[in-house]
Amino acid sequence: MNVRKMRLYDTENVHSGDDRDEFEKDYARLIQSPAFRRLQGKSQVFGAGSGDYYRTRLTHSLEVSQIAREVARRLSKLYPFLALKEHPGLTIDPEVVECASLAHDLGHPPFGHKGEEVLDRLLRDEHGLKYEGNAQNFRILMFLEKRAGSDSGLDLTAAVLLAINKYPYCIDDPDRHKGVYSTEWEGIGFLRDTWGMPKGCATLEAQLMDLCDDIAYSTHDLEDGIRAGKILMDRAFFEDDRVVAHVLQEITEDPNYSAANWQGVDQESMVKRVLIDFYEQWAQIYLECDREPSRTRREMKARWVRKFASEVGIIDEPSSGWKMVTFVRDGQRDWELQRTMEILKKLAWVTLIKDFRVQRLHKRSEVMIERLWGSFKTYETGRLIVPRDWLESYEAQKAKWPWERLAADYISGMTDAYAEKVYAEFFASRSGSIYERD
Fold first, then answer.
1. How far apart, in Å, are the Cα atoms of 353 and each of 45, 104, 250, 340, 362?
2. Where does 22-195 sit in CATH, by number?
3. Mind listing the pLDDT tens digit for each residue in 115-146?
4. In a 3-state reduction of DSSP, which class is residue 30?
5. Would you kindly state where each structural domain of the chain is located, as residue ranges?
6. Is 322 strand, coil or helix?
7. How far apart are CA 328 and CA 173, in angstroms?
8. Those residues with Cβ within 8 angstroms of residue 310's Cβ, 6 or more apart along the chain or in another chain
9. What is the pTM of this model?
């Protein structure tokens, strides 16, 4: 039995065929799914529809998949132990990493992280439930998406499902903020047990997908920020003490911040150095590109992607007895590059997400989601305004999960534009995009 290509609970590979490779089937199922198409209408940083240039969740996911696939191919050549496939979780197939990258953001609701934050708050405060984008991925992949002959969503292979599972925990356990809802954790836990995965450890493919997501975020969002004029490419901006202070604040207040990872480092000095080095690299490339900003942006992005991607490697992780995908130099974890990427990610955050215009959009989206939630959350009235197939799904599955979870599923599946449309149908005095009324 090939446990990597098995489908959920199909331990004998009964539903596998020889016409196509199983991972090719996964790829086809993902890119032809409605959930994947809807990513084109979901915000990355700027609201979807803000302009033809800026990235959406769809283009971001495609870029992550391209980076991850190429890094996977390089690692397969660089580390001979991967070819031995001695453990299903210590293997890297480019096709699997590509599929996981395409699927990693399916669970994000409309309006980016603000939508996720609002839905989570509403569900917690009113019903003691949680909402989280990574957990919602598995709601979509293992139940909400439909394909003929399957009661398991898209019915993806074990390798792809576990490659998406970068937080290998049940989110409904106490003090867990990321993971998988208990309804889907049963299946994910079954696969992990079948594979013999160590507790709390992600597969190498999941780790690689996660790192490539960070690479894309820290490079592509900066490119969008420069294009939008939020990041001013002059020395004064990068030397501004307020920018430095805001980046430092975001680093230290991040929930995943660990002082041990910055031990012995003068954080302020490093932030200043990374920012000014970034500007000086821009100034040099700007001259090389004959002072054309668009060419400079693309070249700058390409060089940083290449720098990060070329240093991805695999090391032993003594505390877990597992292996870690991270930046590696001379056989050791490259903390300098890891910290550099974190600084660039936070630069994108403080200049884009914290921009007052983006915050206005966030406030507007918060109001819309709160009022949509108020319309759908109660079964007696909500059942009258959801599509019939959603109501039928609830009736068939109501022993497993409450109406409130379905209401959150329905709202979270909306694109930005569709959420605005439904909001306008319920509450607006006239039709038209909400962005036109600013």
1. 7, 21, 12, 19, 9
2. 1.10.3210.10
3. 999 999 999 999 999 999 999 999 999 999 98
4. helix
5. 22-195, 231-354, 367-437
6. strand
7. 33
8. 74
9. 0.92
